[in-house]
Amino acid sequence: MKGKWQRNKYVGVSLVGKTLAVMGFGKVGTEVARRAKGLGMHVIAHDPYAPADRARAIGVELVSFDEALSKADFISLHMPLTAATSKILNDETFAKMKKGVRIVNVARGGVIDEDALVKALDAGIVAQAALDVFTEKPPAKDSKLVLHEKVTATPHLGASTMEAQEGVAIEIAEAVVGALRGELAATAVNAPMVPAEVLTELKPFVELAEKLGRLAVQLVAGGSGVKNVKVTYASARAPDDLDTRLLRAMITKGLIEPISSVFVNLVNADFTAKQRGLRITEERVILEGSPESPLDFIQVQIANVESKFASAISETGEIKVEGRVKDGIPHLTKVGSFEVDVSLEGSIILCRQVDQPGMIGTVGSILGQENVNVSFMSVGRIAPRKQAVMAIGVDDQPSKEALKKIGDVPAIEEFVFLKL
Q: What residue intervals traverse the membrane (predicted)?
């Protein structure tokens, strides 16, 4: 099913700098927007149900329906057919478009008034239309729309080809295997949609985000009363290149699960936080330099709480932890005002002590006697012979007796055991 196509007339239409209006900003619309951005197009979108942060994350501006119509050089339809969208493109709406607009419909045939589209094509309002769907399926052989010289028609059969069916089967199998392994899924329903290649790059930072949340909430005295959390992301990449919804969900998971029986996942994270009165604000710090990595560091701060480890309180009065990814492994790099460097594997013991010789050996000997293996150790201090914080990574949880022995060391002023 193909209309007459004057290829010599339309070949060479430049997309760079042209405005694409994506009408319907769900998963398909979002992927179309990503690709259009890659082709150098300016992308706007209309969808009354689309979250603004998802659009903002890929550099797309959400606009009103009329604004989308009036600004677009290209319109791509990705909306369902409902009472509200039936014949949403009609004589009245075509009149609001730029002359020479091009329209692609791969959604539902009924969202376009086909008689009105023929008139718009004849009048030159619409320069070209590519249609994969029609009101009547299949359309009549003498359909003016299908036979129009400015229309390219396809039979909506792409998903039924042997290649597509094979591709879907492989994708499903890979997704199931990945889910059973506990891996993040790029195609999860009702979850932040992140392309597979971006997901691979973000994976260690996703793990870092959850563990920073777990550390931060365990530093709160009593564990409850957490209401205000600030997350800071530092990156040399442009803000539009970093979608933080996945990271925020994992920080939420880390904050809530250690102190409740609630299971938090990518789908329910924001709703669960809202239910519990947990307000998470996000801030981005733009760094100079080469953006080889999506993030330089993530920082989590909890305000208006007391801490069971006083050294975790920053100069401004919040519990503060900060971390980086090094060689693909999450590391804790700051507690309060103290610089540390400990791999976030197993569990952690934090000790504030007088900075003096023999402290590492003393604590290490106590753990060694308990057959607790030390995986990592780091000391951050204010100045020589002043206050210091020692961060110790351990593979196993020390006994209460071992922890008591550590606390009884005269130079240790406070300590806390944190389970990851």
A: none
